[in-house]
Amino acid sequence: MGLFDWLRRRPAAIPDDLWQRTLASQPFLAALDADEARRLRALAERFLADKEFTAAGGLELSDEICVAIAAQGCLPVLELGLGAYGDWVGIVVYADEFVVPREIADDDGVVHRYADVLSGEAWEGGPLLVSWRDVQMAGGDYNVVIHEFAHKLDMLNGEVDGMPALHSGITAERWEGVLLPAYDDFCARVDAGEETIIDPYAAEAPGEFFAVLSECFFGIPDVVAAEYPALYELLRDYYRQDPLARLQKK
Fold first, then answer.
1. Which of 186, 233, 238 has its CA nearest to residue 212?
2. 59: phi > 0 → left, psi -120 to 50 → alpha, else beta; which?
3. What range does the domain containing 162 cover?
4. pLDDT at 7
5. Model pTM?
6. CATH of the domain at 41
């Protein structure tokens, strides 16, 4: 019986060696101080007890897979609490990229069917899907787990529009006044053909901008702070964490 089996029945300690390997596997986790790492571990243990992991695409679940996803997914809510993830249960882990069938009707009412090849997706009120191969690629400006978990935070107050449910420390006016101008500026840079360090996919929509910038906030905080200082401060106040300060301590 694996760790992911019994943790679904009751919270229990993640083995020390597995936890230390998980932290050491990613710089943004290794940068946590001792107290942050201890609290993240407690959150991950509770998360593993609350969520249901399912394998797909020929993958066999392991302790390593479940703990890696739990650690990365709980990092954004380290100071917000697991209540932010309380409205969904399932996590489907594919071995690699997966295909999701889509339907869209055009202006004439004609339905077009196509297939999306994805590395991750968050369903409103439903499960979160990720590719294990992409989870392992986490680092720098790319983190499929944080990206999809940011979408889950965005969904807490309705549609994915780039504005998550805000706590008392941030007003909607401030959020829109900082994020939307940064989004417009980034879109203009992408449209002009600039090769940006931040993934151009962030220009797709404000919701994707929030998710991609959340990846970058934790993975390359120095880039976010340099290119969009007001947005870095906004995300710092929202997540109640300062990854740039962690980076500068190392």
1. 186
2. beta
3. 3-249
4. 46
5. 0.90
6. 3.40.390.10
What is the spatial distance between Cα 7 and Cα 70, in angstroms, rounded to a whole number?
12
Residue with tokens 């929202």, as numbered in its chain: 238
- 120 in Cβ contact with 134 (< 8 Å): yes
- 55: closest CA among 127, 146, 147? 127
Task: Give DSSP secondary structure letters for 218-239.
Answer: HH-HHHHHHH-HHHHHHHHHHH
Distances (CA, A) of 233 to 35, 118, 152, 221: 23, 31, 21, 11
CA distance 248 to 250: 6
User: Which residues have CB under 8 Å from 148's CB, separation 6+?
Assistant: 120, 121, 122, 128, 129, 130, 211
Compute the half-sphere exposure of residue 4: CA atoms within 13 Å on the CB side of its CA.
19
Domain count, the chain: 1
| Whether pLDDT at 250 is above 70 | no
Q: What span, in angstroms and rounded, lies between the C-alpha atoms of 146 and 126?
A: 17
Instruction: Identify the CA nearest to 151 among candidates 172, 129, 121.
Output: 121
3-state SS, residue 27: helix
Q: Do the bridges between strand 120-122 and strand 128-131 make them parallel or antiparallel, or are there none, so unpaired?
A: antiparallel
Give the residue carrying structure tokens 């797709």.
204
Report whether pLDDT(30) > 70.
yes
Are the beta carbons of 187 and 196 closer than 8 angstroms? no
Alpha-carbon distances of 62 from 18, 115, 132, rounded to whole Å: 11, 29, 11
